[in-house]
Each structure stands twice: as C-alpha cells, then as structure tokens.
Design brief:
Length: 515
C-alpha cells in the first residue's frame, strides 16, 4: 500500500475508533445515578476524602475502607475537584482509562499485524457488553484492565526485542496497577510470562526479565511509598483488612456471599462478550491453527490463566473475567478470517434481543409467583418501565441488527462493528438509564430529600452507599428507634411501629417512626 494511502487509512480508522469510544465510554456518562454497591462505595469514599483532606487513608461512612489501594480515589478526587460532586466526575477516570486501554490494543495489534486487525480488536473491546459497563463505572477495574494491558504488551515486546524502554514501561504500569487493586497487578503478569517461558523453553530469559534491577526500582518508587505510609498510619488493621481479608481470603473463601461453581465464568463470557460471542467459539474451534503463532500462544496463556485462576477462587464476581478479555479480543480479531460462516454471527445477539423483547411477559409471570414484598415492588416497577416504548425500541434494534446482515457491500468485519454499535446505543441510551431509574433513582431521590430537610438517617436491612453521596451525610446502620427516620424496604415496614412514610418508590422507603 502506498505510504499516503496507509496514513489515510490509519487516520480514518483512528477517527472511527475515537467515535466508538465516545459513544461507548463517554455518552451519557453522568446521566445515570451511581449504582450500588460498588459505585456508591468508591464515590462516597472519594467524597469523604475531599471533605476530610486525608489523602492517605480512605473512609466509608466514617470507617476505614481497606478494600482497594489509593490510585483510583486520587483520580476520582481530581475529577471531582474539576467538575464537582456528580456522576460524570466519579466515572470520568474509568472512561479515560478505557480510552487508553483501547489505544493500547490498537497499537499492539497494529505492530504485530496490520491496521484493519488492530481496529477490529480495539473496536470489539470498546463495543462489548461488559467493557461498556466497566469503562463507565466509578470503580477501580477499568483502570486496572488498562494497566494490565500495558504491562502485558510491554513485557511481550521486551521478551521479543530486549527493549529497555518496554521493560521499564511494564514495571511502571505494574506499579500503578499495584496502587490500583493490589497484588493481582503482579500475579497475572508474572504467572503468564512464567508459563509462556516454560512452553518456549526460555526460563532463564524470563528470570532475567522479572528480576530486572532498574525495573524493580521503578516499580518500588511508584508503589511502595503509599503502602509504607498507610501501614505507618493504620498499622496491622491495614495489613489484616487489605492483604488478608480482601486478597488472601477473597481467593480462599467466598467473600460477602460472592460464590459460584467451577463453571461460573462460562455464562459470564458468553454474555460479557456480546454481541461478539460467536467469535469466542471460533477461537476455541481454531485453537490448533492459532497456536502455531507465538504471540497467539502468549495471548491464550493469558486468557487461560485468568479463567482458571478465578474459577478456582472462592470469591467470584463477573468483572474478574475482564482481566482476561484483552487477549480474547485480539484472538477473536485474528480468528475472523478463519471462519467459514460469518453470517451466523448475528444469531446470538438476535436471540438475546428476542429474550429482551419477551422480558415484559417474564416480569408478569414472576410478579404472580413471587411472594417477597420488596421483589414484588421491583417487578411492578420494572413492568411499569417496560411498556410499549420499551418493546418498540427493542424491536427496532432487532430489525436494525437483522438488516445489517443483508447489506451487500458490508464485510463481515463491518457487520460485526455495526451490530456492536447498535448494541452500544441500546445499552447506553436506553437500557442502562432504565436500570438506573428502577434500581437507583429511588435511593437518589430519598437522599436528596434527606439532604434538603436535614434528616438524620438510620439505614436498616439495606446497604446503599450511594445514599451517602447524594445526601452528603453519614448514616447509622442498625435497627431504628422511636422518633428516628429510617431508610429501608417495603418488606421491613410491618416490623416498624406505625411509620409515617416520607418517601416511597419501587420498594425503597424512607419513614419516620412514631415517638
């Protein structure tokens, strides 16, 4: 290809990728209330940091929070100071991290193959269901995935070329990853490169890479100071809370009830990669062909380690599998030319859309069979929100996805991206706001009312830290006493003594008890 043509193609692909990033990661970034529990907890800890001016230790509802290291809170705090205490500011660091993550995939694949494959891999990452969610969420995982991608790409580049810049970049990214979510930022790169070196017969080369003196110094300069200062500030409470409870115990046992079988992550992958799930099966069917390439072997080991490691973990959460999605997107882009029937790729997204179209019927049936009062209130609210407009929008998306498959001048790659764009528009502009309206808007409105009236709240049989963000105050978590104002669910109302309802919607209730 002529140099000018290649530059023109690169510019067009980057502009298109940039547009997809804007749609998926930045559109409606601040228009949906914070989701509990995670978004509410991270955002409230950041708000409390801003008020207390304690930039070392995070607190939630006035108590130390040792769940995650400090970096995401610092970034959220910077955004809040620039844009105010709002959903946009809390989510902005994740959206920016998602942008860098997509860029890293594009640059890596472009160097390994060509522009078109780089664009496809990055675009699938940007438009896949779980990444759309995680790159808009006010939590640490978008940033960690970005830093993991940079770490792994730099390690592979150094492994192949011996580049000093690459190994320094890898250790720096791992250092920031350690400041984002802790040891997992080291475990994945070290384990994957070790396994890769074993199959490649180059253990000595791996050892030299991992114990690189200048790289270790860079890592320690970035990561160590906060850990030392936090230990000095909090002592063994930090060690026990962060390292033992939220790292070792998270693997050894089911933390906070988040458990599952060994096959937990199979449906997570099938749904999380939507609407590109069919290409995941293409990768599985074409493993023998893909394994002939050393880069593909590295990528497969990366995904395989994440899948097995978290499948064996006692605590299971859907977003853990995203740590292995980066290599999958690249493998899926490489597998596309190997498929014989790309026209079948649309079947899975069409089936999912058909299930969404049937959701109002499922809700009606569930409403008649479930006895839990709170769940009934939620289902009634969901039925109210999924009326005729909902059905028309989902049916329009089905027609759009089906029509794309018959466009004669569209390649299989373009059909995939166009389908992904439709899904992204549906999720960002309709389904996510709908979920927010049902699950979080009642919490937000109750909190704003509490803030306006100066209510002191007791939170009982419910845990919604986003309430603290919107009310701008702490709550007590216990059984309420006479004369107090309680935030709870309709299920608990019969257990209260003649409560006066101050606010009620979709099963969330704020009430004042009789004196």
């Amino acid at each position: 290809m002529h140099l000018n043509q290649k530059k023109s193609e690169t510019a067009w692909l980057l502009a298109t990728l940039g547009l997809l990033v804007l749609v998926s990661f930045f559109s409606a970034l601040g228009s949906v209330p914070l989701f509990d529990v995670d978004e509410g907890a991270f955002s409230e800890a950041t708000r409390e940091m801003m008020i207390s001016k304690n930039y070392l230790t995070t607190y939630l509802n006035g108590a130390p929070r040792f769940d995650k290291p400090i970096l995401i809170y610092w970034l959220q705090l910077a955004a809040v100071k620039l844009f105010g205490v709002n959903e946009f500011a809390f989510r902005l660091p994740s959206a920016l991290a998602g942008t860098v993550w997509a860029s890293a995939i594009f640059l890596f694949v472009r160097k390994e193959s060509d522009n078109r494959q780089a664009f496809l891999a990055a675009a699938m990452m940007v438009l896949s269901l779980q990444v759309i969610v995680i790159a808009k969420a006010a939590i640490a995982d978008g940033l960690l995935n970005c830093l993991l991608a940079v770490t792994m790409f730099a390690l592979l580049h150094h492994y192949k070329t011996g580049s000093k810049q690459a190994i320094h970049l890898a250790f720096a990214a791992a250092g920031f990853g350690m400041l984002t979510k802790g040891p997992i930022a080291i475990i994945i790169p070290v384990a994957v490169t070790f396994l890769f070196s074993l199959q490649d017969g180059s253990f000595k080369k791996w050892l030299q890479m991992i114990v690189n003196p200048s790289g270790i110094i860079i890592f320690l300069i970035i990561a160590l100071p906060w850990y030392l200062l936090e230990y000095r500030d909090q002592g063994m409470a930090f060690i026990e809370g962060f390292f033992f409870k939220h790292n070792i115990n998270r693997f050894n046992s089911s933390l906070e009830g988040h458990s599952g079988s060994l096959f937990y992550y199979l449906p997570v992958i099938i749904i999380g990669l939507m609407p590109f799930t069919a290409l995941f099966f293409t990768v599985l069917f074409k493993l023998k062909t893909l394994l002939a390439d050393s880069t593909n072997r590295f990528l497969l080991i990366w995904f395989g380690f994440v899948f097995i490691f978290f499948s064996l973990s006692g605590t299971k959460l859907p977003h853990y599998m995203i740590y292995g999605y980066t290599p999958l997107f690249i493998l899926m882009a490489r597998a596309l030319p190997l498929t014989k029937h790309p026209e079948y790729f649309a079947l899975w997204p069409l089936l999912v859309l058909a299930a969404l179209a049937c959701l109002p019927l499922f809700l009606q049936k569930a409403l008649s069979e479930i006895n839990d009062i709170y769940i009934q209130a939620l289902l009634a609210g969901a039925t109210e929100l999924t009326g005729q407009p909902y059905l028309l929008i989902v049916l329009a998306t089905i027609i759009g996805v089906a029509a794309i498959q018959f466009l004669p001048r569209f390649s299989a790659e373009n059909k995939l991206i166009a389908t992904g764009l439709l899904f992204s528009l549906l999720i960002n502009f309709y389904l996510t706001p709908l979920a927010g309206q049902l699950l979080q808007e009642p919490i937000k409105q109750a909190a704003l009312l509490a803030n306006k009236e100066g209510y002191k709240i007791v939170m009982w049989k419910i845990y919604n830290p986003s309430f603290l963000v919107y009310s701008g105050s702490f709550v007590e978590k216990r059984q309420p006493e006479p004369g107090e104002i309680v935030l709870t669910t309709v299920k608990q109302l019969p257990r209260l003594d003649h409560p006066a309802i101050l606010y009620s919607k979709y099963g969330i209730v704020m009430a004042k008890l009789r004196q």
